[in-house]
Amino acid sequence: MGTLNTLTLTDAIRKLHNNEITLDALYADVNSAVSSKNSALNIYLAQDKYAEKSAEKGTLSLLRGVPIAVKDNFLTVGLPTTASSKVLDGFMPPYESTVTSKLKKAGGVIFGKTNMDAWAHGSSTETSDYGPTKNPRNPEHLPGGSSGGSAAAVAADMCIAAIGSETAGSIRQPSAWCGVVGLKPTYGRVSRAGVVAMGSSLDCPGPITKTVEDAAILLNVIAGQDKYDATTSPVQVPDFTKMLKTGVKGVRVGIAYIDHEKLVGTPAAKAVEQAAEVLQSLGAIVDRVPLSQTLKDNTILTPDYAIGVYTVVQRGEVSSNLARYDGIRYGHDRTHFGDEAKRRIMLGTFTLSKGYADKYYVKAQQVRSLYIQNFRQLFSRYDVLISPTSPGYALKLGASKDNPMFGELEDMLEEPSSITGLPGINVPCGHDKKTNLYLGLNIVSAQWNEGLVLRAGYAFEQNTYWNSWLKKDK
Fold first, then answer.
1. Structure confidence by residue, pLDDT tens digits, 413-455
2. Which residues are catalytic?
3. Do the domain assignments include residue 473?
4. pTM for this entry
5. How many domains does the chain have?
6. Among 148, 312, 367, 435, which is most exposed with the fewest C-beta within 10 angstroms?
């Protein structure tokens, strides 16, 4: 087996453009990696056997025919879309999602569909009806979720880049646990058209890649207003790759959440403190943002309340979105729903029911507004906020069993930025040599400020040794 499958998207595009490598050789190495690893890791649910032939059509386009893995909640013509649920087992979509259409138009190839938590309900990929995915960095551990298959595909070099979706942490958390880069755009920056809906006021498609530059390239391709999604914004999409290398001198950085009781003194908190020192050495102005239980200027509202807000809002939207799967129009009947889907439907229906909607759903939306106010004030003082992506390293297989709040607790540090629609990126910031597991740095900014998030992530990545593809190990 060759090593072309280990190329970053940036390098693969450059080498294909310069005729330094061939598509045949690139696909041979990716296919070899899949053949040797997929049965053990359970990453791909479906693969396009004509992928290499399709790649030849994209050789003159931006992405040059590179193989891209796509989470199995994006509709793809010619490949099944199941959202990892037996309800949709064997479903062949009649049309293409906007995101995958844009990838194809730019010369990318949908190499295969990756495993996920069923309906994107979870943060472990253990709720998949097709079995759990394992973390390529350490197969005894979880890859995270719900985009666990996409993050694992990148970490295992079983694709050149991947696409995931995030409702609250589902791009950034598995990226942290798998030691890769994951970018959640501003809500409305990337179209949700053709994505199996989970929480409609929260869902965000985004790239999962080997480097920050790779993420910027893919965001350039998939971002923009879409006539098929009324929630997409007309805000102009800049060229994110042109902002990457301008550095962080003068950028105001706030360190958030490390004084939370669950983080004080942990490896994750220490890794963020060290990351702050790196950014400061590069010219950033760094300050700590105190944690607060109430809404006060120049403090950050505890993420604890966001857990409840997300739980209520997301369950309410799930109960509405999953109501269409009745086995009449498409798919199988409701007896095929897994336990997690049933729990979320029931809780969502309850919180929206007469006599309880004001008590739960309306209250959750009011608290959501408090988080919006909090971030609005903080981003008048800071350009970016940094925190751990996850409270710790990837947990062992089986950790989510009998824990209905597993995802909410593992994603607690992303939930505030998710319920407020903010952009954020995960960049590897720590590595345990004993377990080969990674920690992630979460960088968040104001709406439409993906460029600044990418700049900060790139500066940190290029001046540290945590990224396993940049060959900067100590």
1. 999 999 999 999 999 999 999 999 999 999 999 999 999 999 9
2. 71, 146, 170
3. no
4. 0.97
5. 1
6. 435
